[in-house]
Amino acid sequence: MFVDFRDQPPPPPWQPPRRRPRLTPRQEKTLAAIIGFNIVLLIIAPIGGATLIGVLALLWR
To answer: Taking the model in full, what pTM does it have?
Structure first.
């Protein structure tokens, strides 16, 4: 079956997606503080967890 599309209007021109606005300086500072805090916890938390496990092991003796 043949369908004639010659009388159809052309599609709209392609537009790139809109970019999200950049972070404000205050938001950048807050994000950096959160990331820094998480990095510090990444280093300290396993040490603290191992210490608590050691304390629990001594209590069970």
So the answer is: 0.54
| Separation of alpha carbons 17 and 19, rounded Å | 6
Dist. CA 58–CA 10, nearest whole Å: 78
Is residue 30 classed as helix, strand or coil in its secondary structure?
helix
Length of the chain, in residues: 61
Angstrom distance (rounded) from CA 26 to CA 34? 12
> N- to C-terminal Cα distance for the chain?
85
Q: What's the pLDDT tens digit per position in 15-60?
A: 998 888 889 999 999 999 999 999 998 888 888 778 878 888 888 8
Place of tokens 């043949």: 2
Q: Cα–Cα distances in Å, from 9 out to 12, 15, 47?
A: 9, 18, 67
